[in-house]
Predict the structure.
Amino acid sequence: MILDEIVSWKKKELVKAKADRPAADLKAKAKSAAPLKPFSLRQAGSVSIIAEIKRASPTKGVLKADLDPKKQAEAYAEGGARAISVLTDLKFFQGSVDDLRAARRAVDLPVLRKDFIIDDYQLLETRVMLADCALLIVRILEKRQLADYVAMAREDLKLATLVETHTEKEVEAALDARASIIGINNRDLDTFTVSLETTARLRRFIPPEVVVVSESGIGKRDDLVLLKAMNVDAALIGEELVTSDDPAKKLGELLDERPRR
């Protein structure tokens, strides 16, 4: 399975990263790093959009060969995105830390680092690169590990976390870890089938004080209308925006949440 392959590769990457740059060095840099932006997604009466910068995917290959993260981020800001997500994985998504830094410099929006975090070293990396939020995927973390990472990010690094789930059991683990932002991935990472029914099914298990983000399979205005009816706070949208000829216009269409006739 692709997720197992990614995690296996991340373990190899970590060995090299730790040899090249000791954790102690990262901790020192994290302590002196500039303050982060609040990763605020909740807007009364509206579903916020986290717009994603994503060069490629393991299943679809290259999405936009000439993607410029600066221009993409500017288009997202112009179109009304509430936050930006940036893939920093190189091997499987052709992303990089440079993509994240270019996006952050270009606009005054909070930035999510989207990667496959399996070690607290990567949280230190995330803080040093000045991402405002880190993705934590419940499926690839032990329950205790997840709770430790959420606490470390919040208390030590002042870093927000988006805790991604796909099942009721994973939502329970996220709540036990005291996650304040829970993502519901509509994509089954085993079969890669996508359905907004996943958000509909899991939303009811998440208490109102927790921010809810629906991820994957969202590309139409009617999808946003449906998510709004579910009391979802935000939608993470990538491929529909990356492959659009006019991402700012596409965002404007999505954010006009009146149902089409």
Observations:
- The first helix runs from residue 2 to 20.
- The domain at 2-31+46-255 is CATH 3.20.20.70 (TIM Barrel).
